[in-house]
Design goal:
single chain; 718 residues; alpha+beta; Ubiquitin-like (UB roll); C8orf32 fold; Arc Repressor Mutant, subunit A; 4 domains; 6-stranded antiparallel sheet; 20 helices; 22% strand; globular
Length: 718
């Protein structure tokens, strides 16, 4: 342990920081965040004496103890260092521009002025995208979508960010993302189709002429496969009509993007089919929320990551063309940061000829458009071109890891050199996130009067489990009912004398779930919504998982009584509504707040956490708590990623010093979704910052990742 005192200057204020250098640079940045409120991903740290930037891999035992902190959102004073950085940036830009000029000169000798080959690649799509505006196809598409379910998920996703009253634009954006995730799960990738006769594997045999029934839906190509078992042939028509794809729901990237773009248009989103001449197809939609076109790849389930192909798949792009019902656009620059290299591969047609061709096709498509519509489109075209040019020379987000291709057979991906070096979309620059989890604490606390009533009424263990099972059935039925009008009759439950007597003890639970009992005019009783349906949607999964856990713990008890009204049976005084930051996280579903949402379906994933990572929890309004216990839950899969060794610490001085609250080694989770409870045995230490330092996972040899299903912190009763 090497502790040093650093003197940090920020905004004319001086901060002294005693720091254990063994904790590394990332934790150092978070402690600066605690002192200055500058998030780690906005920090630039300089050595005060000679104004040199401190790198993230710097040795904290040897650097100067006099530091200066700058937020990247603030104006940085001129210095020799910043001038040098600007000069370097100017030199780099000049080098890139020079490379572009050379590539353009070379293109004049390599590329053709003849537009025929390029036009033959684009023209078929111009007529294809018009099918997306066909009312019959749109209606057929909408009928296949569980609209209310996706609306519910969209609103819940916004609520988890603290947005319970989203605007129409925010709702539309969130719904589009849920549509993408749903489509990813509902469409099937086909490398080689299964045998139509026996269902076994097939091998490719070549091509065949399409049948009239296949050409009816635009199948100009038909692949033929032979079964490895029964030797019968299976045909795989490559349909181009998205109406047929609504029925077959399978294919490769062409079918996926074709069908998904129809879905986007069916729900009113301005959409484009994006054709990559190096053999891939995806979708763009105009996001009113972002104020720009957004990349969506239905095959990968990834959105707004246009550098996915160049940076993640290692694609050598040349032409990326957007085809829409209002024009054809060259959007290649959106998908590259190596334009000079891309230019050297654009040998099909010269840039002036390409620009002229696309303008002519667009003019042809827009013939007959009203003058006002043309004016709007021209303005947006100009804004888009300006935005693309600005982004072309912007810096990459080095903290973002983009995955290689995940759709298609692994050998096929390897043969195309698209496997990439990363398997997951993740970020090593995790922002401080707010935990929207008060409903979790309220749900946990709401079971206290229920279990207390069981004790008072002297129910046997089997009787208690029976009642809990009945309540679970009610909540499950509510969970499966339409989210805007959730209601369920409970007269059959009231006919059970035990349940009728115990029902008042469930009032707190109904309140936590934003539900109420209602007596109808005919005397029947039902449970229905009492408030915001989104609050109920958030809380119901928590209640179901909590009931499963209580039933599990009841079955483990030999006897139960007043002494049982504590962990692990009851989870009282859970700390909630704080903020949390981590060493890294998986995007978009493995973010760190997923460990605090009270549900089994989510988890926090740290892509490089197997040999060490951390989570820091900051209490709401910096309120002090004495921690008495905590629980960790294993995630849904991959037991090798379970935490095995860790240290839990608390701080009451903004993270300047840390006090060890608990230390665990060689821990093992035998089951998935298993909760383990740990009691704090050290002396009382009120804290408003809590830090988990995970030191190793169960099997560091087989994985680089750590994952945790949930983290719950329990405080002493105030």
């Amino acid at each position: 342990m090497v502790t040093r005192k650093f003197h940090v200057q920020h905004n004319h204020f001086n901060f002294d920081l005693d720091y254990d250098t063994n904790d590394g640079f990332e934790v150092f940045q978070f402690q600066l965040f605690s002192l200055t409120s500058v998030p780690p991903h906005h920090q630039k740290i300089y050595v005060s004496e000679h104004d040199t930037l401190v790198a993230t891999d710097s040795d904290l035992t040897t650097i100067s103890d006099k530091l200066r902190l700058i937020s990247i959102d603030e104006h940085q004073p001129e210095s020799e260092s910043s001038n040098a950085d600007l000069l370097k940036s100017d030199e780099e830009l000049a080098r890139l521009l020079q490379a572009e000029e050379e590539a353009l000169m070379l293109q004049q000798y390599m590329a053709s002025e003849n537009t025929q080959e390029f036009e033959s690649r684009v023209r078929p799509y111009v007529s294809e995208v018009l099918m997306y505006d066909d009312a019959r196809r749109q209606e057929a598409a909408r009928k296949t979508v569980p609209v209310e379910e996706l609306e519910d998920k969209a609103l819940v996703s916004l609520a988890k960010e603290g947005n319970f009253k989203p605007s129409k634009i925010e709702q539309d954006h969130a719904f589009l993302l849920q549509l993408l995730f749903w489509f990813k799960q509902s469409f099937r990738w086909v490398d080689s189709p299964s045998c139509y006769d026996c269902g076994n594997k097939t091998t490719p045999q070549g091509m065949a002429a399409p049948l009239p029934s296949e050409t009816l839906y635009g199948a100009s190509r038909v692949e033929v496969f032979r079964c490895t078992l029964c030797s019968k042939q299976t045909r795989f028509p490559r349909y181009n009509d998205p109406a047929k794809l609504l029925e077959t729901r399978k294919g490769r990237c062409g079918e996926w993007a074709n069908c998904f773009t129809l879905y986007c248009r069916a729900f009113g989103y301005e959409s484009r089919l994006i054709v990559d001449f190096t053999d891939h197809v995806w979708t763009e939609c105009f996001s009113q929320f972002l104020g720009r076109w957004m990349h969506l790849d239905p095959c990968e389930g990834i959105y707004d990551k246009p550098l996915l192909y160049e940076k993640g798949w290692n694609k050598k792009l040349n032409y990326v063309i957007a085809i829409a019902n209002d024009g054809v656009y060259d959007v290649t620059k959106r998908y590259t940061r190596k334009w000079h290299e891309v230019l050297s591969r654009r040998a099909m047609i010269t840039e002036p000829s390409l620009s002229s061709l696309l303008k002519n096709i667009t003019k042809e498509i827009r013939r007959g458009f009203a003058s006002q519509q043309l004016s709007v489109l021209e303005t947006r075209d100009t804004e888009e071109n300006q935005q693309i040019e600005r982004s072309l020379h912007s810096e990459d987000d080095e903290s973002l890891s983009l995955p290689g291709r995940r759709s298609g057979d692994e050998e096929w991906r390897k043969s195309r050199l698209e496997i990439g070096s990363d398997k997951h979309l993740s970020s090593s620059s995790c922002p401080a996130r707010l935990c929207i989890d008060e409903h979790v604490t309220k749900t946990y606390n709401a079971f206290r009067p229920v279990i207390s009533q069981f004790v008072e009424e002297e129910l046997t263990k089997s009787e208690a489990v029976e009642v809990l099972g009945i309540i679970k059935g009610i909540i499950l039925n509510l969970h499966n009912s339409p989210f805007k009008t959730r209601r369920i009759p409970i007269d059959s439950v009231l006919n059970n004398p035990k349940c009728q007597k115990l029902l008042p003890s469930f009032d707190d639970l109904l309140d936590a779930l934003s539900l109420e009992k209602k007596v109808n005019t005919d005397g029947t009783v039902e449970i229905c919504l009492a408030g915001d349906p989104v609050v109920t949607s958030l809380a119901l999964p928590v209640a179901l998982d909590t009931l499963d856990d209580i039933i599990y713990n009841f079955n483990k008890l030999e006897n139960y009584g007043k002494d049982s009204l504590a962990l692990p049976l009851l989870k009282l005084n859970r700390i909630h509504s704080g903020s949390v930051v981590a060493s890294a996280e998986e995007l978009p579903f493995g973010i760190v707040t997923s460990a605090f949402d009270g549900t089994q379906k989510s988890k926090w994933e740290e892509p490089n956490g197997a040999r060490g990572c951390w989570v820091v929890y900051k209490t709401f309004d910096k309120k002090m708590f004495e921690l008495v216990a905590y629980e960790l839950m294993s995630a849904n899969d991959a037991p090798e990623r379970d935490p095995m060794d860790w240290i839990l610490e608390g701080s009451n001085d903004e993270g300047i010093s840390w006090h060890v609250l608990d230390k665990q080694t060689s821990q093992s989770f035998e089951d998935r979704f298993q909760r383990k409870t740990y009691t704090i045995k050290s002396a009382s230490f009120p804290s408003n910052l809590f830090r988990f330092r995970f030191l190793a996972v169960r099997d560091v040899q087989s994985t680089s990742r750590l994952q945790i299903g949930s983290i719950d912190l329990y405080a002493k009763t105030m």
